[in-house]
Amino acid sequence: MFKPVAIAPSILSADFMNLGRDIALIEEAGAGYVHVDVMDGHFVPNITIGVPHVRQLHGLASIPLDVHLMVSNPLEELPWFIQAGADVLTVHAESLQGQWLNRAVELIHEGGARACVACKPHTPLSALQPVIAELDMALIMSVEPGFSGQSYIEGSEQRVAEVAAMARAAGNDGMLIEVDGGIGEETVGRVCAAGADVIVCGNAVFGAADPAGALAAIARRGDAARLAALAEGGC
Ligand code: DX5
Ligand code: ZN
């Protein structure tokens, strides 16, 4: 059955002095989530925002907060972000070895949030195998995490198709697939045809002269690709 793509604009590219205005804008334009990039300057070479921001965003946004933790110690920090109002909480597979990845997913669910695990572009997707049956969402990074405005890594759509097949094989048909990095009108069709459900867009939305128009155009192209794939018997 056809499900429209959900756009998750990343506020990393928004105007931090006018976040209320920018969030109202994307909500009116039909965004599905607010994507919040938390970076610690250690897991990635950049520092962005933290718990107090998420708490205030929770009061401001009426669509779910999709909090992407790019930190070295997610097990310690994730409860704070759930308490602050994260609806979807993403941790990176690279920062959680062995059983700790399972524990993180359990903790997210115990906290009442939806659990997502992310893989950097060169991490084998087998890293998701121990938790794939439990995930609400998997995040395929299509750039190296750390900065907005980078170019899409060619071939990332194959990793989307691969993770879709892994979820089906695990009997987790409800798992969503999110793609993050370098997505805009040119690239959204490829990842949606491969099975992407949630599209993170930073620069392509907030860097556009008309952010609402850009968001709508990306959603239209994503939906068209999903419909075409469905007609061909794909996702
Ligand atoms: C990168 C972040 C992304 C980033 C996306 O580490 O996870 O969410 O803000 O920005 P664009 O869409 O500009 O690549
Ligand atoms: Zn992100």
Protein model, in words:
The protein has 235 residues and is α/β, with parallel strands linked by helices. It has helices spanning 19-28, 51-60, 74-84, 99-110, 156-169, 188-193, 203-206, 211-231; strands at 6-9, 34-39, 65-70, 88-92, 114-119, 137-141, 176-180, 198-201. The protein has an eight-stranded parallel beta sheet with strand order 1-8-7-6-5-4-3-2. Helix 2 runs parallel beside helix 3 (74-84). The longest helix has 21 residues, at 211-231.
Bound molecule kinds, no repeats: D-xylitol-5-phosphate, zinc ion
Structural class: alpha/beta
Count the helices. How many?
8
Order of helix and strand elements from N to C terminus: EHEHEHEHEEHEHEHH
Instruction: Give the strand content.
Output: 15-25%
Oligomer: single chain
The CATH homologous superfamily is named: Aldolase class I
For the biggest sheet, the summary is: 8 strands, parallel
Give the fraction of residues assigned to helices. 25-40%
Ends distance: 9 Å
> How many β-strands, per DSSP?
8
- Spatial extent as radius of gyration: 16 Å
Do you know the CATH topology? TIM Barrel
- Under the CATH scheme, which class? Alpha Beta
Poorly predicted runs: none
Strand order of the largest sheet: 1-8-7-6-5-4-3-2
CATH architecture: Alpha-Beta Barrel
What average pLDDT do the residues reach? 97
Q: Which term fits the overall shape?
A: globular
Main attributes of the structure:
235 residues, alpha/beta, TIM Barrel, 8 helices, globular, binds D-xylitol-5-phosphate, binds zinc ion
Can you describe this structure in just a few lines?
By secondary structure, the chain is α/β, with parallel strands linked by helices. The protein has 8 helices and 8 strands; from the N terminus they run E-H-E-H-E-H-E-H-E-E-H-E-H-E-H-H.
